[in-house]
Amino acid sequence: DPFSSDPERHPVLQVNTLKPFNAEPPPEILSDSYITPSAFFFKRNHLPVPQLDQASYRLQVEGLPQGVLSLSLEDLKTKFPKHTVTVTLQCAGNRRGDMNKVKPVKGLNWGVAAIGNAKWSGARLRDVLLAAGFEPGVAQWARHVQFEGLDKDVTGTSYGASIPLNKAIGEEGDVLLAYEMNGEDIPRDHGYPVRVVVPGVVGARNVKWLGKIVVSAEESSSHWQQQDYKGFAPGTDWNQVDFESAPAIQELPVQSAITVPADGAVIHHSDETLTVAGYAWSGGGREVIRVDVSLDGGKTWQVAQLRSGDKGQAPEPSPPPGRAWAWKLWEITAPLPPEAEELEIICKAVDSSYNVQPDTVPPIWNLRGLLSNAWHRVTVRLRR
Ligand code: MTE
Ligand code: MO
User: Fold this and answer.
1) Within 13 Å, how many C-alpha atoms sit on residue 16's CB side?
2) Residues with Cβ < 8 Å from 272, sequence gap 6 or more?
3) pLDDT digit string (tens) for 252-306?
4) How buried is 271 (Cβ within 10 angstroms: 0-12 exposed, 13-18 middle, 19+ buried)?
5) In what order do the strands lie in the sheet with 22-24?
6) CB 227 within 8 A of CB 243
7) CA 334, 337, 343 angle in degrees (round to 5)?
8) Strand pairing partners for 196?
9) DSSP state of 262
């Protein structure tokens, strides 16, 4: 069993598949803390977790005229400045469950919690590429930076992905070769000892167990770059789909979801108000500027309170424009309609480019169930 050496996981996680391990926390855990504890952070593995040891670990950097640069973990930690960035990671399949309800799609049936927010520390990819001899004049052919994981399938094929060169090398890209998550060594499930953290970009490009970086003219040829993680029209089916016709997903669209109360909850209340909470985030460094909440199925709306930290604590300093990599938690306490027996609660976020979430799923439905970001709706029953 290639999965026999996988690490232990927290029992509260809701398991989607065991081998490979795919799991998300109960939604309400996400809004409990601004930084998601690693144990509760969603885990999305395509392959067995590799057994890596920090003493023998090497990271190869290839594709530049200067030749291959090989770095130990010690090199990464001592030869480059350490940067810490709070970054929200979201799987492209987060909320696929909502798409599945409209019409079945192929993929793990994620709820709303295939997303998490962590403090990642490590060397900047930019600094490592410069040390490997990258110079704009020297590598004019370069367009992409490819990443290869050390996790392998039975045929020996590794997980891989790539990002555009300008994201990798840009001074404001904040791409990290991270060796810490929330102030500790990255846990095995999250890429120990080194993973790429690409702020604002879909989870799939944040390659874990990083073994190799290649500066190249072409995107990664990996299955997950070429034949997966792409968006299609609602009418495209498996007979017609041409993966070459669509670009690989990189920056993600604006997203939000309700984490409290849970869908289907029965609210026994004597008080007249209800508290609704959730998260909101957008890709590409676009900051969430507003979250609107409705308790009556979208007839009337109220603006939720946003926060970038835990209640009663100082919030994180606000990021420079275009570099808002972390989510916001939001909350609203609103009067309950006195006569209602059932409420449809809805949330929708607006980002700094005034992008909004689509109101329903059908116009964005796609056969892989990716980019599921329609207004999030939960229905609760009231018992007096
Ligand atoms: N990197 C490797 N090497 N292998 C993988 O299976 N999964 C990707 C990405 N990086 C994956 C990987 C996907 S699809 C996602 S959503 C994120 O890792 C999940 O990161 P997490 O498990 O730390 O939450
Ligand atoms: Mo993912």
Assistant:
1) 25
2) 335, 336, 338
3) 999 999 999 999 999 886 778 999 999 999 999 999 999 999 999 999 999 999 9
4) exposed
5) 14-17, 22-24, 43-44
6) yes
7) 85
8) 177
9) P
Probe ligand 1: pick from 44, 180, 255, max atoms within 8 Å of CB?
A: 44
**β pairing state of 176-181 and 210-216:** unpaired
What integer best gives the mean pLDDT of the chain? 97
CA–CA gap between residue 229 and residue 246 (Å, rounded): 10
- Of the candidates 170, 95, 169, 124, the one whose C-alpha atom is nearest the C-alpha of residue 377 is 95
Tell me whether domains 14-245 and 255-383 share a fold. no
Please name the fold of domain 14-245.
Sulfite Oxidase; Chain A, domain 2 (3.90.420)
Banded model confidence at residue 361, pLDDT cuts 50, 70, 90: very high
Do 159 and 46 touch, CB atoms closer than 8 A?
Answer: yes
pLDDT digits (tens, 9 = 90+) for 109-168: 999 999 999 999 999 999 999 999 998 788 899 999 999 999 999 999 999 999 999 999
Q: Which whole number is the average pLDDT over 369-373? A: 98
Ligand nearest to the CA of 224: 1
Residues in contact with 87: Cβ distance below 8 Å, sequence separation at least 6, in sequence order:
117, 118, 120, 174, 176, 197, 199, 325, 326
- Written out in words, the top-level CATH class of the domain with range 255-383 is mainly beta
Domain ranges of the chain: 14-245, 255-383
Residue type, 231: G
Element (H, E) at 102: helix 96-102
> What is the distance in A from the centroid of ligand 2 to the CA of 94?
8
The pLDDT score that the predictor gives to residue 116 is: 99
- CB of 22 closer than 6 angstroms to any ligand 1 atom: no
Secondary structure element (H or E) that encloses residue 248, with its range: none
pLDDT class for 340, splitting at 50, 70, 90?
Answer: confident
3 state SS of 57:
coil
Ligand 1 contact, 368 CB (< 6 A)? no
